[in-house]
Amino acid sequence: MYPGKSQVNQALLNLIMIDYTILGASPANLSMMLESVHRIHPNGARVRIVLNAAVESDLPFAVDGVEITKLTHDRWDHEEDLRRGVPCLCGVYRPAVKRNVVTFFQSALGIATERYTNLVHPTAELAATTELGSGVDIGPHVVVAPHTRIGNFVTLNRATTIGHHTTLGDFVTVNPGANIAGRCRIGEGASIGISASVLDGVEVGARSVIGAGAVVTRDLPEAVVAFGVPARIVRTVE
After folding, report:
1. How many CB atoms sit inside 10 A of residue 11's CB?
2. What sign has the CA pseudo-torsion 229, 235, 237, 238?
3. Burial 39-67 (b: 16+ CB within 10 A, else e)
4. How far is the C-alpha of 59 from the C-alpha of 76, rounded, in Å?
5. Could you give the CA distance from residue 92 to residue 22 in angstroms, rounded to a whole number?
6. Which of 42, 95, 163, 177 has the least CB density, counted as fewest CB within 10 Å?
7. Tens-place pLDDT, residues 153-162
8. Could you give phi then psi for residue 38, rounded to 5 degrees?
9. d(Cα 212, Cα 140) in Å, to the nearest integer?
């Protein structure tokens, strides 16, 4: 017996469609990731969102052509996904939470850093010499200049710009519209606020937080919060 037309079409669709597994979930990251998946795979994609903790949200996340399934980590057949080579994404946004989610899935299910893929929105512009780690999430209209190094689990939100020969450590988050100039070093787990600027050659220490609209004109140590123009330290990170 030959398969019917609908069966053939579904079989072809299964070959065309790609699968992703998003580990952890926050509204900011889910919105950006699902839009990127939709733009990268116009023929459709399947996304499993695997939760390590309960997430309550009434926000809509449906995107045309993207099949979304949510489940808790204890119901995820991660060994089957490993066998099939399904790539993982880190679905949370804040640096400390990203680290916690990655650590949880590593310790509970053995999900190594190498299992995570990078998600780059089609409108982003990355220089050919850009070095990317694993689990990097780059949103729309991001511009990355030549010879930039981007660590694991870095998030570059929409319309951010990263200058030449700049290094972003693991778990860094750069918020919408922020500008990091050339030859900068942004330490592991730092967060750069909305529309903030880090001037040429400046170093921001690990876990430091730069406020929205701030202009960082000089080096900042680890684990501080800085606001203003020019940015001044207002407190330490708890």
Report:
1. 11
2. negative
3. eebeebbbbbbbbbeeeeeeeebebeebe
4. 23
5. 9
6. 42
7. 999 999 999 9
8. -60, -45
9. 19
Whether residue 46 contacts residue 17, with contact meaning beta carbons closer than 8 Å, is answered with yes
Q: Poorest-confidence range of 1-15, 38-52, 207-221?
A: 1-15
| ∠ CA 66-71-75, rounded to 5° | 130
CA 126 remoteness from chain centre? 15
Q: What pTM value is reported for the model? A: 0.91
Q: Output b/e per residue, 92-102; b: 16+ Cβ within 10 A.
A: bbbbebbbebb
Task: Tell me if 66 sits within 8 A of 34, measured CB to CB.
Answer: yes
Q: Which is the catalytic residue, given 41, 73, 141, 164?
A: 164
What is the distance between the terminal CA atoms of the chain, rounded to a whole angstrom?
A: 67
Tokens representing residue 227 in the block: 């606001």
CA distances for 59 relative to 49, 68, 233, angstroms: 15, 14, 35
SS3 state of residue 8:
helix
147: left (phi over 0), alpha (psi -120 to 50) or beta: left
Whether the CB-CB separation of 61 and 39 falls below 8 Å is answered with no
Phi, psi of 21 (to 5 degrees): -120, 120
